[in-house]
Structure formats: structure tokens, C-alpha cells
Design a protein that fits this description.
The protein contains 17 helices and seven strands. It is an alpha+beta fold. The strands form two sheets. Strands 2-3-1-6-7 form a five-stranded mixed β-sheet.
């Protein structure tokens, strides 16, 4: 539930941000009319930048989205005998566009310059052909959009708009279930394109696609930042982000090094999948740190918390709260050794032993040891980190599950 709420908030933020940007463009478009040539050049440049960045960082879905929008724009700007049927029928273009967006919303990122790109080009060509066949079978291909009334029951059953709306719903569900900057971008682009084709959009193709291209560039840069500075497993800031943060620290700060006690033994007993589960849950508890602290995953089972403008004695209580928060948190484990349903005999044999140790097997608790130091004048950040690490090992030597300063 929390994930869904977070997703809706993030999606709403993206929509609101673009709504404001489109609103500004709407009121400024009369001033931009004399600058259409420069704006078109800007559109091509921003698309090129977005394509280069997305290809460089293996975000192929953004690359394909940019290429598709460029193709859509060019096919409606330049007349060519080969494109007469396509250019003269916006129904075909719209159905193809939404269908391809639907596919992109569910597929995974792959290397752009690989066999997967050929496969996706094949999918795009197939979508174009299937869309043509569908519209032709409805005998609505030569004319404009069918008129829709509020009480028209054929709208859902057989009209042109049924697959369009279904595609938009599927893109929206993908954005909710697998939220990312790309899923938000593809959903917003699908809605805007739909309104643009139907003539309900107040901006021109060029202005709309120019703003979308800038938005895509921002999304690619932001997602690349998260790849570089966020730990994928726990969602915390990474070790690289830690050292980046150290460049902005004043002379007064404290560093706490934390380590999950007996984690190697825990991994050997329960397996690495459960170990990853524990790391995520511990990280979630550490992320609740207060007193201005910022938590990072240093590596393995180690975490680091930086407290800017705080001395060690000021944050001991907060660190004790974190230690207790982790120690008192029951971690529910999945029993990977449950007998299969069709193996009734072994199920009966194992029932008694499972009942006896259910509590021990189903839930576990872990503890952390913490070492904390304050920066001393003249010390480098690496020296402060080393001192905090020494305090951490001192805490482990004192029996673990304690804070040493």
C-alpha cells in the first residue's frame, strides 16, 4: 500500500510539473511563432542529446521512444509517395502510436545496439501492419475519427476507440505496478499524443514534442544519476554518493559506521536471497534516522550515517534508537523447504518438527554494531571514516549489538 501511495505521488508530481510547463508554453506560444525555425533546431538537438545519453547508459526504451517520436514528427512534416497512406490517415497513426507505447511500457531495457533492438523494430512494424488490418476490417480507414456520444454502447464493444483506451489503461497500470521515470514518461506521452491527434491539445506538434524531448533528457539524466548514486538492492544512497556528500561537509560533523552482526553466518544458514531480504529491511529501518543524519550503504552488510554539524555526544541517543529499532524488528522469512502438496507422506512426517520450530524458522531478528566518531580539525574524510571503522570493531569486540564512541 505504501508503495502504491508513493507511486501515485511520484506520478502526480511528474504530471503536475509537465502541466505547468505546457501551460507556460500555451501562454507564450504567440511569442514563439517567429522562432519556429530555431525551435525546430532545438527539437532535433534535444532529441539527439536524449538519444545519445539513453544509448550510452543502456536505457534503450528511452532511445526507441525518442526515435518513434522523431519518426512520427517527420512523417507528418515531409510529404513522400511511400508515406501517402500513412500521412493521410491519422487513425492509423494514432492506433499504431498507442499500441507501440503499450508495448514499450511493459518491455525491459536491453542494449540498444543488440539483437533486441532488431526484435523491437520488428514489433513496431508488426504493430503498424496489425493496426492497418484492424482499421480496414472496421471499414473506417479512409475517413476521420468516428463520432462518440456518451450513451453509445458500441463505443466499448466495437468502435475505433476501444483498443486506444485499453492501451492507455494498460500503460497506466504499468506505471502503477512498475513505477520508474520511464513508465511515467510513457504514460504522459501517450495521453498527450492521444489528445494531440484528436485535436483537443492547444499546442502545436513542434512545441509539444520539443517540451517532451526536454522532459525525456531530464528523465534520462535523473535515472542515470540514480543508477550511479543509489544502491539498487536497498534503495539507499551508495558509497559513491557518500564520498560526493563528503565534499560538502563543514569542519564539524560526525560519522557512524554500522555493521549487521554475524551476517556471514546468517547468509550461510538461510541463503543469499534471505540475506538480501534482511539487508533491505535493515536499510528501511536505518532510513528512519533523525537528527539530520543521512544513511548510505557502504558495501556488503556495512552502512554509514553522516551527521552534519553534530558532535558524537549529540547523536548517541539517536544511534541507540536505531540500534533498538533494528533489534526489535521481527523479520519474517519464507520457508523454502516446505514439502510439495503432492508429497503427502513427507508433509505428515515434517509437520511435527515444523510446528516445534515454526517461530524460529518463520521469523528472525538481527542486531547491528555501531561505531561513531566526530571529525577532528585537520582530519581528512578518509581518516574520519577509518576512525569510525575502528570504533565499529571495538563495538564488536565488546559483544556486538552496542554503540561505541
Amino acid at each position: 500500500m505504501n508503495h502504491l501511495v508513493t507511486t501515485i505521488k511520484s506520478l502526480s508530481f511528474n504530471i503536475s510539473l509537465l502541466a505547468v510547463a505546457f501551460g507556460i508554453l500555451f501562454f507564450a506560444q504567440s511569442y514563439l511563432t517567429p522562432l519556429m525555425n530555431q525551435l525546430e533546431l532545438f527539437f532535433y538537438v534535444s532529441l539527439g542529446i536524449g538519444f545519445f545519453l539513453s544509448a550510452q547508459f543502456n536505457q534503450s526504451r528511452f532511445s526507441l521512444l525518442l526515435l518513434f517520436l522523431l519518426s512520427l514528427y517527420l512523417s507528418n512534416q515531409f510529404q513522400h509517395p511511400f508515406l501517402v497512406s500513412w500521412q493521410s490517415n491519422e487513425q492509423w497513426q494514432l492506433l499504431t502510436t498507442i499500441s507501440f507505447f503499450t508495448y514499450l511500457s511493459w518491455c525491459k531495457d536491453r542494449g540498444l545496439f543488440s539483437i533486441y533492438s532488431l526484435y523491437r523494430i520488428g514489433v513496431a512494424l508488426t504493430v503498424i501492419g496489425v493496426s492497418y488490418a484492424y482499421l480496414n476490417s472496421m471499414q473506417k480507414l479512409p475517413t476521420g475519427y468516428p463520432e462518440v456520444t456518451f450513451f453509445d454502447s458500441n463505443f466499448i464493444l466495437a468502435s475505433f476507440y476501444a483498443p486506444i483506451l485499453l492501451g492507455l489503461i494498460v500503460v497506466f497500470v504499468a506505471a502503477l505496478m512498475n513505477y520508474s521515470l520511464f513508465s511515467a514518461a510513457i504514460f504522459i506521452t501517450a495521453i498527450v499524443t492521444f489528445l494531440l491527434f484528436l485535436g483537443f491539445w492547444p499546442l502545436s506538434w513542434l512545441l509539444t514534442f520539443s517540451l517532451l524531448s526536454v522532459y525525456f533528457v531530464i528523465c534520462v539524466i535523473t535515472s542515470t544519476y540514480f543508477l550511479a548514486y543509489r544502491d539498487e538492492l536497498t534503495g539507499l544512497a551508495s558509497r559513491r554518493a557518500l564520498y560526493q556528500k563528503s565534499l560538502s561537509l563543514s569542519k564539524k560533523y560526525s560519522v557512524a559506521m554500522m555493521d549487521i552482526d554475524h551476517f556471514k553466518k546468517f547468509n550461510d544458514t538461510y541463503g543469499h536471497d534471505v540475506g538480501d531480504q534482511v539487508l533491505r529491511l535493515v536499510a528501511a529501518q536505518l532510513a528512519k534516522v533523525k537528527s539530520g543524519g543521512k544513511v548510505f550503504r557502504y558495501g556488503g552488510e556495512e552502512f554509514t550515517v553522516i551527521f552534519p554539524r553534530k558532535m558524537a555526544e549529540q547523536i548517541i541517543h539517536e544511534l541507540e534508537c536505531l540500534r533498538l529499532l533494528v533489534a526489535d524488528y521481527p523479520i519474517v522469512l519464507r520457508d523454502e523447504n516446505r514439502p510439495k502438496k503432492d508429497n503427502k507422506q513427507s508433509a505428515k512426517q515434517g509437520k511435527a518438527s515444523r510446528n516445534k520450530s515454526a517461530a524460529a524458522k518463520d521469523t528472525v531478528s538481527v542486531t547491528i554494531s555501531i561505531g561513531v566518531v566526530s571529525a577532528i580539525a585537520g582530519q581528512t574524510f578518509d581518516e574520519v571514516m577509518k576512525a569510525a571503522d575502528e570504533k565499529l570493531y571495538e563495538a564488536k569486540g565488546n559483544g556486538r549489538n552496542n554503540v561505541c564512541s
